Amino acid sequence: MKYIEIHGQTVAMAEFLPAQASSNPPWILIHGAGHDHGVWTELAQGLSAAGDHLIAPDLPGHGHSAGAPIADIAGMAAWVLALAEALGHAQLRLCGHSMGSLVALAAAGMAPERVRQLALVGTALPMRVSPLLLDLAQNDPDQAYALINKYSFAPAEVLGESRRQALQAANLQRMQQQGGATLASDLSACNTWQDGLSAAAQVRCPTVVISGELDQMTPVDAVISLLDTLEKACGDTRMLVLAGSSHSIMQEVPEALLEALREPS
């Protein structure tokens, strides 16, 4: 782990360096609601071995980063841009999962001249969260974790029962480590963000939208308006639907996701 200070608070991140220096800007990997940098480890190791530089931070109030969770998507996006600046990266590539995809999109809209490539994984616009889940996260987090785990992974017939159980156990532990208050804040931020299409209209870099074929949380058809807006904004937009995956794409099909990010736009 690496530690720096942003706005006077300690930020923890994992950094993955390629064997040989690359002229490409680093990927900043942005985790989703109730998660931390650990969701990216397998993917980041693979991309690093393939020659990319990757930075996977814990957002404030998550993992080993200090402070309270940032309560809104725009605030998280500004924080990510500040992180890149503090690390000395004027140019960057952004990849976000679920809530992190909204943060990445917002950051690319705020600073289109800085973002050279954008990957939105398990995304939806708008990213509505059910009132039941919002209430459970606030008042009965154990039930919220169980509900999220139920829909985060492909069925056992696809993943295999033992693998699905292992993925769910790891995901439960990660959510418990962040705590119910952090999850509630994150879910509320997703549910209330209304600026997705206006952010997409400002994007000027190659963009890939990656969905899981079996995703019930952010289904494939939830990105139609986003894709249309991105195509009009920058033209260099593609969508990939990964077979055998639900919402937790990085854990379920890391090899397919790695290939998707390595493909030229």
TrEMBL record:
AB hydrolase-1 domain sequence ranges: 26-249
GO molecular function: monoacylglycerol lipase activity
Name assigned to this protein: AB hydrolase-1 domain-containing protein
Gene Ontology cellular component terms for the protein in this record: membrane
Organism per entry: Thauera terpenica 58Eu
Pfam families per the UniProt record, alphabetical: Abhydrolase_1
A GO biological process held by the record: acylglycerol catabolic process
Signal peptide: none
